[in-house]
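Private note to self, pasted from the team thread so I don't lose it. Backbone tokens:
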């Protein structure tokens, strides 16, 4: 039995602004920490080597004329891929991207963020018998405003394609969930977001 998980966590460009700007990050590209245990591709009868990626970038709250954050989250994290090999391979690829969500209160602006390409592709691991789904969740461009603007965000192509791990046979579906461009405004604008093609194509394992 082989267990070789990998976890990628990136937290960058999030801020709180009160009577001014909380944070201004020129670029969060590559701002992610990877922790891997063992060899994800070691030969074994059973391989359990998931790859889990979490990116939190460009989320903010602004009040009294303040700006929470203005961040470029492009390329914060790369591709994610479960381990390969094994007679039975259970190595899913999991992505969670949270970007460009904000709250603006009393002439505040929560966030103005570039979330395009925040994360790369997600691919489940391959094996003789693969149970390696690709799971992608993207939360972007959601905002709340009271006499302000919650969020201005570009969420297009926030995540890449998702592919389940191949095998003969394979039970490797692709699960995608996206929450984008939802807002609530009271004498303000909750959100102005571009949600076109927020996630890429999904292809289950053959």
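Design output:
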């Amino acid at each position: 039995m082989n267990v070789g998980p990998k976890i990628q966590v990136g937290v960058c460009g999030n801020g709180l602004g009160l009577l001014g700007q909380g944070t201004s990050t020129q670029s969060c590209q590559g701002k992610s920490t990877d922790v891997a245990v063992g060899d994800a591709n070691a030969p074994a009868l059973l391989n359990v080597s998931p790859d889990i990626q979490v990116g939190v970038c460009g989320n903010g709250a602004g009040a009294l004329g303040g700006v929470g954050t203005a961040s470029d989250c492009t390329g914060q994290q790369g591709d994610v891929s479960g381990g390969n090999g094994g007679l039975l391979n259970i190595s899913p690829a999991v992505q969670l991207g949270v970007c460009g969500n904000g709250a603006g209160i009393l002439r505040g602006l929560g966030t103005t963020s570039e979330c395009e390409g925040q994360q790369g592709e997600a691919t489940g691991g391959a094996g003789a018998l693969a149970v390696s789904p690709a799971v992608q969740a993207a939360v972007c461009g959601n905002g709340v405003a009271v006499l302000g603007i919650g969020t201005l965000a570009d969420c297009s192509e926030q995540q890449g394609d998702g592919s389940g791990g191949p095998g003969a046979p394979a039970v490797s579906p692709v699960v995608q969930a996206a929450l984008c461009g939802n807002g609530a405004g009271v004498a303000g604008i909750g959100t102005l977001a571009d949600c076109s093609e927020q996630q890429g194509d999904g292809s289950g394992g053959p």
